[in-house]
Amino acid sequence: MEFRSDVITCSGKYSNNQQKLFSYGTAGFRTKADDLETVLFRMGLLAALRSKAKKAHIGLMITASHNPACDNGVKLVDPYGEMMVESWEAHATHVANASDDELAGVLHCIVTEEHITADHTAQVVIGRDTRPSSNTLHAAAVSGVEALGGKVVDCGVVTTPLLHYRVRCANDPSYGVASNEGYTDKLVETFLKLQSCAQPATSCAQPATSCYCQDLLFDGANGVGGLQMAIMAPRISQALKLTIHNGGEGQGVLNYRCGADFVKVSQSWPSGVPATPGSRCVSVDGDADRVVYSYIDELGAYHLMDGDKIATLVVGFLQEQLSEAGLALRLGLVQTAYANGASTAYVNDSLKVPVGFAKTGVKHLHHMALSFDIGVYFEANGHGTVIFSDSASAAIKEAASTDSPAARRLAAVKDLINETVGDAISDLLLVEVILRHRGWGMRDWDAQYHDMPNKLVTVRVADRSVFETTDAERRCTQPAALQPAIDDLLSTSFLHARARTFVRPSGTEDLVRVYAEAATQSHVEELALQVSRLVFDLAGGVGERP
Ligand SMILES: CC(=O)N[C@H]1[C@@H](OP(=O)(O)O)O[C@H](CO)[C@@H](O)[C@@H]1O
Ligand SMILES: [Mg+2]
């Protein structure tokens, strides 16, 4: 293939004039939007090459998720709607950082290494979020795809999970209709079907005694999730009465003091949503791939229901349905080190469902979840979904053709779930199906287990690349002196505090994260402080010592 320099810079319009180095991380490229135009053009080029390599539609999503409105980002999506394979992340980093003169050489190397031939016309499915910069970046990405003779399927302003769905359907029509309406229809219709057949479970045999409440406040983070929900809410109102706040129609600032990330990190109610005792709220993030719930009890106290609470609810439900349907499928949960220890203990000890631990970042969780017949995976921050193996799907389908209500419910639940990636809207509909089925109010759900007090803090160091971890990031191997010092702390001052702590470098920001969990809040505060100081002292902390 030929890469003429005027073509691969769009006659100089997309030149690399930057000193800045980009790195394709856990969430693709993510930084200040002003720095990204050439990167987006080049990701258009790369997406076209990936499409040629796979002879399939490839996805390109323009978003910076929960980051501030001034940021933006891009990530590529592989044919089945999954995150782009790790081996191409290095290609992405090389392409983004090449000088204009180097670029043709870098693209040639990719073509050779990946055995790409010119015979397939590239097809790239592009979506963008509501950020002001997304239009310009979209134009750059389209130009990149077209520069290599590729075709663009433009999804417009969509949630990240909708884009993943569109890519999957474009390559695998059995998954659903490849349009934005197809996604909406699939979720709406399956949800309504499930709500009508989800009778309260045996523990709550009388519908009259159900504590389930149909009223739900929706916090859209002032982003694209609110727009999508505005389309769906009227169509599901007979089963779920959603009131949309922070809806993304331009009245509030994206992700500012609202949305799933704000709610999880600050453990507080989102601004822009009326806070009245007894109310419950679901928050999604800026691109609607994460979801957390909150409620205010009758006494006015705030409660967070994070990704761990959602995961345990889903695992318990699936386990019960599998058993009722007489299906012996291997169900498992995948968490990260950030999962609250009480949630892990609940799933392991009470539900007797195996729990695996993966590194942070959904691609790692997704990969591990594939080892189960039905793999549930969730990050504590609310990003997660359920995936079904082919054999599990076939077994459920077959059982559903008999008159087993549980098997039919499982089959419908599988349709409601977006298996490609965590999907805030699909996940929240699933939560509502389960709560209604169980006849549960928020307190019932919350009572499954009680969170251990915990704290997540950050420390700035001169060079976070000196950190190395093992055991799903739960232990630090470099800097060498750090883990022994942490172990010493745990076996002395915190010996009887049921304490757990770990340190890992962020994959998305220039800092190191310290997580601490213990029996009491004061132990947690002290542990987080002591470990932060160890990091600062032993790993080149910069700025003020914690
Ligand atoms: C503790 C935490 O919430 N970490 C987040 C954050 O990763 P870091 O590598 O910790 O910066 O961003 C990731 C991408 O959105 C998300 O997958 C992950 O859960
Ligand atoms: Mg997100």
UniProtKB/TrEMBL annotation:
User: How does the cofactor attach, per the note?
Assistant: Binds 1 Mg(2+) ion per subunit.
> What positions does the domain Alpha-D-phosphohexomutase alpha/beta/alpha occupy?
52-89, 119-168
Cofactor annotation: Mg(2+)
Every Phosphoacetylglucosamine mutase AMG1 domain range? 214-292, 306-440
User: Per UniProt, where does substrate bind?
Assistant: E379, A380, N381, R504, P505, S506, G507, T508, R513
CDD domains, per database record: PGM3
Can you provide one Gene Ontology molecular function annotated for this UniProt record? magnesium ion binding
The UniProt record lists the EC number as 5.4.2.3
Its domain of life?
A: Eukaryota
Q: Where does Mg(2+) bind?
A: S65, D285, D287, D289
Residue positions of the active site: S65
Enzymatic reactions: N-acetyl-alpha-D-glucosamine 1-phosphate = N-acetyl-D-glucosamine 6-phosphate
Q: In which pathway does it act?
A: Nucleotide-sugar biosynthesis; UDP-N-acetyl-alpha-D-glucosamine biosynthesis; N-acetyl-alpha-D-glucosamine 1-phosphate from alpha-D-glucosamine 6-phosphate (route I): step 2/2
What span is annotated as the signal peptide, if there is one?
none
Transmembrane regions listed in the UniProt entry: none
Enzyme class per UniProt: isomerase
Looking at the keywords, is S-adenosyl-L-methionine present?
no
Q: Name one GO biological process term.
A: carbohydrate metabolic process
Role according to the record: Catalyzes the conversion of GlcNAc-6-P into GlcNAc-1-P during the synthesis of uridine diphosphate/UDP-GlcNAc, a sugar nucleotide critical to multiple glycosylation pathways including protein N- and O-glycosylation.
Q: Which family does it belong to?
A: Belongs to the phosphohexose mutase family.
- Protein name as annotated: Phosphoacetylglucosamine mutase
Which species is listed as the source? Hyalella azteca
What gene codes for this chain?
LOC108671031
